[in-house]
Amino acid sequence: MKTRKILFVLALSLGVFATSCSNDDNEGETIVPIQGKYNLRQTGTIVNGQEVLIDAPQNQAGCNLDYLELKLSNTAVMGDYNGTQCALTETTGTYVRSHNDLTITVGNTSSVSDIMNLTNKELKIKDKATGIITVYSR
């Protein structure tokens, strides 16, 4: 069950990292660095051409927000707060950014997302396999 939740958060995270910025000088790639710690805020999908986002159900009431940290060393750390004591479980993997694609790998499982938006305050990705959108804030 915990593995499913981690994979779901990972898939959502990857969807949030699919950010693009329209700029002819850099072929649509945003120039904001992707490294940083991002708090999970919203998840959703596109319905009838419109984004439908809700507060992330993975975040447990009364606990800190789950997070994704992307380090300069290409290490990805996913933090998950659970239980009545809000115990933190961290899962570590790697990430690779190629233009506006973000690939996160944990163990033998990889997910690829389009970076939909990447600013100094937000990372929004869309998982290429599932279409799930994940929104993080810095």
TrEMBL record:
What residues does the Lipocalin-like domain cover? 35-125
Give the matching Pfam families: Lipocalin_4 (PF13648)
User: Span of the secretion signal?
Assistant: 1-18
The alphabetized UniProt keywords are: Signal
Does this entry carry the keyword Signal? Answer: yes
Question: Could you tell me which InterPro entries the record lists for this protein?
Answer: Lipocalin-like
For this protein, the record's PROSITE patterns field holds:
PROKAR_LIPOPROTEIN
UniProt protein name: Lipocalin family protein
Give the organism, scientific name.
Flavobacterium artemisiae
